[in-house]
Amino acid sequence: MITDQPSLVGIYGGTFDPIHYGHLRVAEELADEVNFQQIIFVPSGTPRLRNTPLGSRDQRAEMVRLAIQDNPHFAIDEREIHRPGVTATVESLREFQSESIPNRILCFIVGIDTFIHINHWIQWRELFNLCHLVVVARPGYGSISDHRTLPQEVAQELALRRAVSTDDLSKQATGLIYIAHTSLLEISASHIRHLVGINKSIRYLLPSTISDYIVKNQLYIEKK
Q1: DSSP 193
Q2: Closest Cα partner for 106 from 126, 128, 91?
Q3: Mean pLDDT of the region 56-62
Q4: Residue 48 has pLDDT above 80, yes or no
Q5: CA distance linking residue 150 with residue 135, whole number of Å
Q6: With respect to CATH, is domain 7-186 assigned 3.40.50.620?
Q7: For residue 203, what are the β-bridge partners?
């Protein structure tokens, strides 16, 4: 039961291999649009549906820590970094909910590229009992209305649960899907890794603290 003045908290998962301005700008805009009290970055350990990250768990967590250190509204949570085995988002969200923080409403931030395949996630429907979903744009994927090939079961959930405005997210504890209106930055971690691999500049694609860390630790350089 939600009492007065609920606190919306964003949970932002990803490999962050490396974290870049695309991630950070989306989080900054969501903090304003949704009025998040806090956004918690949760770097994944070993993702089930993606290639194994090139950066180690500790390296990716450290890059996130460096990137958000000056923003009081951002935080990092390393539970997936320290959890052995394959990462399962539903497990992390169960843990967040078990903390029983009064009035906290969890909103899991997911890219549209992931949302259109969310039915492949472990126990994906359980997510709606644990949080709201906030869907953000990704380069090359257009808007949610363009995706006429959404799996039927995902389209049904979207039709049933779509939030009209951010105000809806504060009116119930879980179960809604909100389509955010964030800027679309044509930046990808894979492109950054490629540029590093061919010895090209990554300046202005990510914070200088991260590019310095990548150089210092010789990340993403092709081994000969």
Answers
A1: H
A2: 128
A3: 97
A4: no
A5: 14
A6: yes
A7: 206
What predicted TM-score, i.e. pTM, was given to this entire model?
Answer: 0.93
Phi first, then psi, for residue 7 (nearest 5°) are -110, 115
DSSP code of 35?
Answer: I
- Residue 152 pairs in a beta bridge with none
Read off the tokens for 109.
């931030």
**How many Cβ atoms are within 10 Å of 153's Cβ, its own excluded?**
12
- 129 is written with which tokens? 């009992």
Q: Report the distance separating Cα 27 and Cα 42, nearest Å.
A: 13
CB 162 within 8 A of CB 139: no
Bridge partners, 52 (sequence order): none
Domain ranges within the chain, ordered by starting residue: 7-186
* C-alpha to C-alpha distance for 38 and 117, rounded to whole angstroms: 27
CB atoms within 10 A of CB 201: 9
For the chain, give the mean pLDDT: 92
State mean pLDDT over 152-175: 95
CA dist 222 and 224 (Å) reads 6
Tell me: pLDDT of 96 over 90: yes
CB-count exposure of residue 66 (10 Å: 0-12, 13-18, 19+): middle
pLDDT band at 144 (very low <50, low <70, confident <90, very high): confident
Sole residue written with tokens 């914070």: 207
Q: Is the pLDDT of residue 71 over 50?
A: yes
Mean per-residue pLDDT for 98-126? Answer: 94
